[in-house]
Amino acid sequence: MTTAAGSTHQRTARLAFATCAGLPDLDPDDHELREALDAQGFPSDVKVWDDPTVDWAAYPHVVIRSTWDYTDRPTQFADWARRVQRTSTLLNPAAVVAWNLDKTYLRDLERAGLPIVPTIWLDPERNLDARAIHTRFPAFGDFVVKPTISAGSRDTGRYEAGQTQSRSLAITHAKNLLGVGRRVMIQRYLQRVDTEGETALIFVEGEFSHSVRKGALLEGPYRAEEHEGTLYRQEAMTARDASEAELEVAKRVVAALPEVVPGVDGPLLYARVDLIPDADGHPVVLELELIEPSFFFHLAPGSAQRFADAIAARLG
Ligand SMILES: Nc1ncnc2c1ncn2[C@@H]1O[C@H](COP(=O)(O)OP(=O)(O)O)[C@@H](O)[C@H]1O
Ligand SMILES: [Mg+2]
C-alpha cells in the first residue's frame, strides 16, 4: 500500500485494472496510465481476471486491460464481467463485453450502414464438408481464414486462392476451427495493408484521442507451433495521423454504438477502431475493440494522461 505524500492516511486502491495471468503487472504500455492516476490521487491495483482469490467487490471501479487469454474461454470471461458488474462499475460494461467478444458484431455494424471488410461467415452447426468450405473461398487472390473469437492474430492464416496446396491448407484450418465449434470468417486479403498498413483510432469518452499505424501481420498459413506460449503476434507499430477518410469512418462507428450495442446509452470510456483500406482505398472496419485494446500510449504523447483524466472523472 502506498502512502500519499503529505497525508497521514493510507491510500487504498478503489480502482482495479483487470489483466491476465501472463501479464500480472499489465502491459508495460499501461504503466504510464497507472502512474498518471496515482499522481492524481487515484492509486490502483492490478488483478488477474480469472484469479479466484480476488475480491472484485472491494473495488468500486474495475477497468479491463490486458485480459488477452480469454479468447479460449469466452463464456467464462463474459460471466466474469457480469459477476464483477453486480458489485462494481465495470469499464467497459458487461453488455459491451458480451457483444464485442465475437467478431459477428461486424454484421451489426454493416446493418447500421458502416463499411466493414467483406466477410463470409461459416457456422459450425452447418457441418460443412471440405467441398462446401472450398466453394466459399474466393476464386483468385489471397484470402484470410480466422475464427470470430480471437485476438492477437491467433488462429489467423493467409492463403492463396490459386494454389491447390494453399487452398487445402485453408480447408484444414477452417475445418479444425469448425470442428471444435468455432465460427469462421473468410475475407479477401486486403492487399493495401502491405503498403499502407492498418490504422488504429483510439477514442476516449467518445472523443477521438490518437491514432497509430500497425504493419501488415499475415505472411502465410496459420501454424499453431509459431504461437505456442505467446499471447499475440509481434506487431510493428508506429505513430501515424489518421486520414480525414479514416477519421470520418471511425467517428461514425463510435457514434453508432448506442444504436448498435444492446445496453449502451452513452459514450464508452474507450474504443479502438481498426481500419484498413479496401481495394479502392476506402477505409473499412477490420475490428472494433471495446474490451481490451492496446492503446499504444508511448506513441502518442499526452494520450495516457488524457485517458487517466477520463478515468479520474468517472471515479469522481
Ligand atoms: N482481410 C484481411 N486483409 C488483410 N489483413 C488481414 C485481414 N484480416 C486480418 N488481417 C491481418 O491479421 C491481423 C489480425 O486480424 P484481426 O481481424 O485484427 O484479428 P485480431 O486482431 O482480433 O486477432 C490484422 O491486424 C491484419 O494484419
Ligand atoms: Mg486486430
From TrEMBL:
TM region positions = none
Instruction: State the protein's name.
Output: ATP-grasp domain-containing protein
- Species assigned in the record: Cellulomonas alba
InterPro entries for this protein: ATP-grasp, DcsG_Biosynth_Enzyme
Q: The ATP-grasp domain covers which part of the protein?
A: 106-316
Keywords (alphabetical) are:
ATP-binding, Nucleotide-binding
**SUPFAM superfamilies membership:** Glutathione synthetase ATP-binding domain-like
Q: Which domain of life is it from?
A: Bacteria
* Keyword presence, Nucleotide-binding: yes
